[in-house]
Amino acid sequence: MSSSPLFYQAGPAMPEVSHARGVFLWDTEGRDYLDGCSGAISCNLGHHHEGIRDAMLAQLDKVAFTYRTQFENGPAMALAQSLVDMTNQDLEKVFFVSSGSEAVESAIKLARQYFFARGESQRRHFVSLRPSYHGSTLGALGVTGYQPLEVPFADITQGSIKVPGPDFFRRAEASDDAHVRELLRQTREQIEAAGGDSIIAIVLEPVGGASTGARMVNKAYLEGVRELCDEFGCLLIFDEVLSGVGRTGAWFAYQHWGVVPDLLTTAKGLGAGYYPVGALLCRADIVDTVMANGGFQHGHTYAGNPLACATGLAAVEAIRKENLLDNVAIRGQQLREGLDALKARFGFVGDVRGIGMLWGVELVQDLSSKAPFPAEANLFARVTALAKEEGLLIYPRRSLDGLAGDHFLVCPPLTISEQEVSLLLERLSVALQRLESEVIEPLMASPA
Ligand code: PMP
């Protein structure tokens, strides 16, 4: 039994962090770790960023907290305008929160209130993908498609209608086009079965995060989903908690495909790991309708406080000033080439996918059948532990609902340099080599 009163999830003993600079962290024993996953895909500007530190200190010297119903505050107004500008005015209204789950929760409630205000209270279902992850609070969990998280709460959440999401690696159809057609057919079928006028919104991540190991969508898929929403009169919500604020090389991932949602959630990289701040962005007419009918029945104490917004503003300004969207494109390409080389070298690396500085690596026992490793082998945990021993942090998952196997994310800070990408790849390569000799070879040699 641990002597610490802290508890999170069960897991291996962890080193204690001492300090961090740029893409590196050090533990109290003096070992360094290259942050190959930006913490939880949140420390997008690396550690100890001076611009953010200075902006936070300057705001602390003015005022840290005001409540949103008592004062306007400059940082909140400026950050809201920045976010709208980042969407090129596709979305014109902003509601601040303190986390990704709160942003999704807010999207769910705003969408429902919108239809309620329009006299369409029979709309009570959300459609979302399996697998997916949208957060840990009960509303966000209801739209999440990841069985281990859902099971204990299934009968106390309002579960969404789950439809399969794109999986271009494991698709059963002969082509990507046929795969997309089949996904859209199934989505339509489920919507019609529930009743088209009972749907509030379709919720999806334009680039999958931890739950899928960065599975991608394509333009035809997003366009098809947009058309379904328009046809059935429901809303389209993109969850960009992980993919937003520059992570993919655009301000928001949807901009790669030009398919615009009605609501968009973002968090993680907005506070860049320096302070919790997230946001719900949405179409102005949705907000106007809700406001004209009694206002949005929702809100959190810390939402949009000056320190949170000054932090977010400094993070966005740093991305602009340091041309980090360009860096993501260039260093992302270097990372992709390096990961592809590792895929060519190790037969158990089945797929490398992603965009910008958001890459997923999927492990397979058999390359031709794409069969995953047995769950008991815990490959995702083993590779993460080995990488950590080699001084590299990666973000692992195994899909326990049989939809895919072990995968991990490689998504370092957007600030990463050429030498640091090379070092990341070197450390990953050693970890994969050790995975092969210390785990996979003995596993394959042992009788089934
Ligand atoms: N949506 C997505 C796509 C996410 O990746 C996450 C966090 N991994 C969340 C929502 C929930 O965010 P938070 O942990 O900040 O509540």
Automatic annotation (TrEMBL):
Alphabetized UniProt keyword annotations: Aminotransferase, Pyridoxal phosphate, Transferase
Q: Which cofactor does it need?
A: pyridoxal 5'-phosphate
User: Per its record, what are the GO molecular function terms?
Assistant: pyridoxal phosphate binding; transaminase activity
Q: Note the InterPro entries from the entry.
A: Aminotrans_3 (IPR005814), Aminotrans_3_PPA_site (IPR049704), PyrdxlP-dep_Trfase (IPR015424), PyrdxlP-dep_Trfase_major (IPR015421), PyrdxlP-dep_Trfase_small (IPR015422)
- Give the matching Pfam families: Aminotran_3
Tell me the superkingdom of the source: Bacteria
Family statement: Belongs to the class-III pyridoxal-phosphate-dependent aminotransferase family.
**What's the protein called, per UniProt?**
Adenosylmethionine-8-amino-7-oxononanoate aminotransferase
Which species?
Marinobacter oulmenensis
